[in-house]
Amino acid sequence: MIVPTMLEQVERFNVDLVGIKPPNNPMLLSIDRMDFRLGHLDEELAEITEGYADGNLEDVTDGLLDLIYVALGTLIEMGIPPGPAFEEVHLANMNRIRGANSTRTGSLGFDAVKPDGWIPPDLQPYLTVARDELVTLAVGKSLGITLDTPGSSDKPKILVMGHARHGKDTVAEMIAEERCLSFTSSSKFCAKKIMWPLLHTYYDNVQACFDDRGNNRVKWFDAITDFNRPDPSALGKAIFAEHDIYCGIRSRREFNALKNSGLFDVSVWVDRSDHISPEGKDSCTVEPWMADFMIDNNGTLADLEFNVQQFVENNL
Question: Does residue 112 contact residue 93 with C-beta atoms inside 8 Å?
Answer without folding.
Answer: yes
